[in-house]
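With this grant's support, we have paired protein sequences with backbone structure tokens. One protein thus recorded is set out beneath this paragraph:

_____
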Amino acid sequence: MLKKRIIACLDVRDGKVTKGVNFVGNKDIADPVELAEYYSDCGADELVFYDITASSDGRKLFTDVLTKVASKVFIPLTVGGGINSFEDFDRVLKCGADKVSVNSGAIADRTLIRKAAKRYGSQCVVISADVKRHKGEYRVYGRGGRDYTGIDAVEWIKYCVDEGAGEIVLNSIDTDGVRNGFDIEMLNDVCGTAKVPVIASGGAGSAEDFVELFKSVPNADAGLAASIFHYREVAIHELKKLLDKNGIPVRIC
């Protein structure tokens, strides 16, 4: 049985790790290089680095901070923010990323996923789908949750997978930062149709939320969180012990 992954997320703005609620009201927390090294050492299976204002600011991702982060981690590193072209993929991979996460760029250029997958392989292409309920339907948002696209989330994810995306990060805007648990309903609706690994993101407030995630959404491949790890409210090695105790397969160092 494949082991479930626990992923730490660094939302970076102006060189600092930041966190908000429902994608707004972000407050600076810590230095991304120090946090990255901590997560690499404490049992996280992977690390995600998002330059959260690159797309909304219309600029390229800050590669200087990324390069420093990549030099400190020895676990898979996924990087996103301001990825709008084939050249952006190449640039962040050369800075040390293992996988590249794209959202707004793929919405704007429907050929981007296929081009990147053909060059670097599907395992390198991650779709970061920022999804929110709109009149009872799941809809995709762009530019860090700022732009309503009207795109049906389930259909969009199917399209991205068909184009060559090898992994999906499902970011529930509705539960982001609320800390009342993952969006189980949304995850089940999406995981039931996705043919590639799905990472659950948004809503984790306790270690027990991860137990509920993997028991309620058995097709979820990983759980991603930020603030509960940043503030040391949940230690990753203790979380993994709890998951293992509940019969959920994880990698324990």
